[in-house]
Design a protein that fits this description.
The structure holds 2 protein chains of 2 kinds.
Chain A: E1 5-7, E2 10-13, E3 19-24, E4 31-38, E5 42-50, E6 53-56, E7 65-71, E8 74-79, E9 88-95, E10 105-106, E11 110-114
Parallel strand pairs in A: 2-11
Antiparallel strand pairs in A: 1-3, 3-8, 4-5, 4-9, 5-6, 7-8, 9-10, 9-11
Chain B: E1 4-7, E2 10-14, E3 19-25, E4 31-37, E5 43-49, E6 52-56, E7 59-64, E8 69-74, E9 83-90, E10 98-100, E11 104-109
Parallel strand pairs in B: 2-11
Antiparallel strand pairs in B: 1-3, 3-8, 4-5, 4-9, 6-7, 7-8, 9-10, 9-11
Classes of the chains: A mainly beta, B mainly beta.
Chain lengths: 115, 110
């Protein structure tokens, strides 16, 4: 089991371009989480899916950010019109059900650099 | 202020030494998780606690919901223990995800 797989590992975009980040959760895990990590803010929750349905996106910036989970094997985080402040490591995690006592397992993240 | 505070921000240890990390929360939380972030950036789950104490090898963690803190104790530190340790707390509504502290950077020296 390769764990949670995130691609690409690194992405560099120019200001104003679109960036799409991919996450493949662990097979059999029905809960998928996206987090963002920066030096200043630390790790921040962005959004959460269970059985492909969006449950909570309260951490997502209201503009330019969107997340989808079209099937149980992958989720995407899309950032439109990227800005330098979007530069961060974006982490995806999955767990069996997202409920109590289900510690999520994290991928290695995608480092996004917006120039 | 930050809902989750971790202390110290950084910690240096020699091999074989022991030390503790602390995580304080501003409100009562349902559970706490401790992670180690390795040099590749992956977050490795160390513990999940809803109460009490858990031990795994050289690591031990406690969670006191009433007093609003959790601790992680490292015993007989090894070089591979180097990394950043995060505590993350779980509110009563799990759908809100985890709230992380800023981490403690641990460096173990030979």
């Amino acid at each position: 089991n390769a764990g949670v797989i995130q691609t690409p590992r690194h992405k560099v975009t120019g200001k104003g371009q679109e960036a799409t980040l991919w996450c493949e959760p662990i097979s059999g895990h029905s809960a998928v989480f996206w987090y963002r990590q920066t030096i200043v803010q630390g790790l921040e929750f962005l959004t959460y899916f269970r059985n492909q349905a969006p449950i909570d996106d309260s951490g997502m910036p209201k503009e330019r950010f969107s997340a989808q989970m079209p099937n149980q094997s992958h989720s995407t985080l899309k950032i439109q019109s990227t800005q330098p402040q979007d530069s961060a490591v974006y982490l995806c995690a999955s767990s069996l059900s997202g409920g109590d006592n289900q510690a999520p397992l994290f991928g290695e993240g995608t480092r996004l650099s917006v120039l | 202020g930050m809902p989750v505070e971790q202390n110290p921000p950084a910690l240096s240890l020699y091999e074989g030494a022991e030390s503790g990390l602390r995580c304080n929360f501003s409100t009562t939380m349902k559970g706490v998780q401790w992670f180690q972030q390795n040099h590749r950036g992956r977050l490795i789950t160390l513990f999940y606690l809803a109460q009490g104490t858990k031990e795994n090898g050289r690591l031990k963690s406690t969670f006191n919901s009433k007093e609003r803190y959790s601790t992680l104790h490292i015993k007989d530190a090894q070089l591979e223990d180097s990394g950043t340790y995060f505590c993350a707390v779980e509110s009563n509504n799990y759908a809100q995800g985890l709230t992380f502290g800023l981490g403690t950077r641990v460096s173990v020296f030979p």
